[in-house]
Write a structure and sequence with these properties.
elongated; 8-stranded antiparallel sheet; Jelly Rolls; mainly beta; single chain; 2 domains
Amino acid sequence: MLTSKLASLALGAISASALIPLSLTAAQADPPAGFTALFNGKDLAGWWGASTEDPRKYMAMSQDEFSKKRTSSLDDIQKHWRAEAGILINDGNGLYLTTDKNYGDIELMIDYKTVPKADSGIYLRGIPQVQIWDYTEEAKFNIGANKGSGGLWNNSPGAPGKDPLVLADKPFGEWNHFHICQLGARTTVYLNDKLVVDHATMENYFDRKLAIPAKGPVQLQTHGGEISWRNLFVREISAEEANKTLRQKSGAGFTPVFNGRDFEGWAGPIDNYEVQDGAIVCKPGKGGTIFTKEEYADFIVRLEFKLPPGGNNGLAIRYPGQGDTAYAGMCELQVLDDDASQYATLDPRQYHGSIYGIVAARRGYQRPVGQWNYEEVTVKGSHIKVELNGTVTVDADVSKVNSYMANSAHPGKNRTSGYFGFAGHSDPVMFRNIEIKKLN
């Protein structure tokens, strides 16, 4: 039966307080409301086999190449995996069971039971991993086994999430229950009703200079001992729900700088903009930089934006009130429909989230045109961090950059304070829920 807490989860946004795990019984046959089953209870349909390998490589394959890779894995998983009475069982060997479908933002529930000295894990978007191991194995205490399962074990030493917050494993012979939320690169894990990872960034094991992929498979890793799995359920999280949760998790201390009705508190060519459905919109064919009347030094701004096809705008950071913010201000953070054909050959430092002309952003984390995106920008001294939909796409110190697009200098990049605003470029890009927290 669906608990009231789970019903609330399935219908609303997941927050730190709302992501309360649930204990499912062995008899659970149907997925809870809003969820689908990853395992049909009788065979391995919907799965293939992969090892610890960079998912970018097989996701970049042609359909024919991937089909051959998938088919070649099936003999191995049939040898080492089996389905019995609604339970998936692995003998401790072979390839890892991997979903045919690739997932983005999800809520995931999985039960598992294992044996002493076994080692396993759950790969999210093909990236290792939410750790599972024997918390009593003294030989592995030096690498953290005594801290228990559920941590993002492949994160860097000392990084948030690497070690579980509490020891939550049940004794051998009992079923353990995972409840996981993945929003962008942000991972929250409950194990047996206990919070073990709280909205930590999962690092890309294969290249730590990159973020984890925007989408990828769920994988069940196993080596070193038999492990059983049951009640594998997934729910794909909508953009609206993800945005709400990301905002909730970003903390308190923010002050709205736009009231959703008019341009009170704003300056610049405000006649070139209008308010639609609680959002600031640049009028078609108009533009210019509008900005807050209050200046900011170090701050965090969080907001949502929605792009029309081919949309182009920008966030003005420490703007002096006149001139081109990309050069006169500290910088312009690009807001752009990256997938529009007219932008196919831009300089990398011109795509969405980039510090315009200075630092290129990681691409591929924008939602489809027409959906609202959540973005959070931290400006501290000469350092700028941009987090888009839960994934960090820029993390740079502009004072250390001395190579610019088209060799064009940016004389304003060393500004220590200024206004925040929007640099419209004729397209009806929308901004809403704009809040700023001062850091000094």
